[in-house]
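User: Please fill in residues for this 37-position structure.
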């Protein structure tokens, strides 16, 4: 059971990292668009 929870924690942290990186990427694009105009 503990091993299963560890695997879920690893998968969850990876998903959170991807979501944070994706949001930062989108915010940077929005900033570039606003500064470009």
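Assistant: Residues filled in for all 37 positions:
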């Amino acid at each position: 059971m503990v091993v299963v929870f560890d695997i879920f924690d690893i998968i969850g942290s990876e998903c959170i990292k991807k979501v944070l990186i994706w949001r930062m990427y989108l915010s940077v694009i929005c900033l570039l668009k606003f500064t470009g105009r």
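For context: The mean pLDDT is 84.
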